[in-house]
Amino acid sequence: MAEQRTSIHGQWSSRFAFILAATGSAVGLGNIWKFPYMAGENGGGAFVLVYIACIALVGLPIMMAEVMLGRRGRQSPINTMRTLAREEGRSGLWQYLGWGGVIAGFFILSYYSVIAGWTMAYFFRTIGGTFDGVTAEVAGQVFGNLVSDPERLLAWHTIFMVLTTVVVSRGVEHGLEKSVRFLMPALFIILILLVGYAMSQGAFMQGVHFLFDADFSKLSADVVLKAMGQAFFTLSLGMGAIMIYGSYLPSDASIARTTFTIVVMDTLVALLAGLAIFPIVFGNGMTADQGVGLIFKVLPIAFGQMPMGTVFGGLFFLLLLFAAWTSAISLIEPAAAWLVENHGMNRIYAAVACGMAAWLLGVGTVLSFNLWAEVTLFDKTFFDLMDYLTSNVMLPLGGLSIALFAGWAMSRNASQDELRLKLSYHLWRFLIRFVSPVLVALVFLNAIGVLSFGRG
User: pTM for this one?
Assistant: First the structure.
């Protein structure tokens, strides 16, 4: 029976440890880098309201389902889906849901490590005074010089991957849990310090109004789909990370309460990041719609012109680094767990093998910004292609498959037994069967261009 199954990798020491770890997986560059610039480009408050609604209708039900599948299977995502499909009398093809998640997470890690390397480089540049009094032209040159230098990018990519591999090699309790017990509180402390600093810069209320005053005239179908997509992707769904973390969750922990806490904390981080960033942007006479360059090209200018900007700029990029690190360790864990289960590797060898393979794949991303910048496939560089495949194809398909398996392939008795909900079970089952799959499918079809709402 599922209740007697245990993970060979160990388990979290408590429900709180799981909350920290899963929140660490969900909180990443997407919250602190991507959410603010997407809100900035898509109208602020109206986008934020739609985002929160989609978190409730899409993110929460699917995260509950993914944690439920992980805890019931108590194995790597691939073996979990194989086991659960067999128990439910379903096709063995469901194991490819697990394969897709593990591969997607592995692909994401390969380029995530390169972007995380940028944050490390910017941390040292900021505290070293590189951006003191910097102009927009010089800030752009600093970023351009970094990404155009393959040796420098490769060095930062290597350092970050080593840090990630070391944590995973130490196992669940001594590696994953110990790291998030330090990194997550540190992340929240730094974020609150940055919000406090933003409050002293004179444009805090402008940032508050931008984030929370809803101008629905700025909403379009395309903006709604973007908010829905961001809500889904910010929670690390469909990439095996939440499923493998769920497999380490103690049997007596409430999946519903635990998942709700994680979703609230993840959303809180995104909103706090907006409250930290936009007042600084507005206070320095800049606009919010700066796109992907908001963090690496615009904020260094602002920090360079502020009192104590070196200190708080350094804290900001340290925050980004911690967020990236907690996400990265969750991305490598599913593949490492599979190697331990299926090939008899010990934890250290499995982590090193996965780290080296992801590092090697990441070299393609490193080179796509410089030596391979003109090399394209389907009009995309290596990095753009990896990002497109994972974000627009693999993750939505993974999330859709999780919803379909949990809602339709898994028996009502099995899901009730694992979730242990009463009245709210019927609401969850309705959402996971009818609402979440339709909304994720819309995001997927929009992302691959089948739908084109609001696109001139």
Answer: 0.93
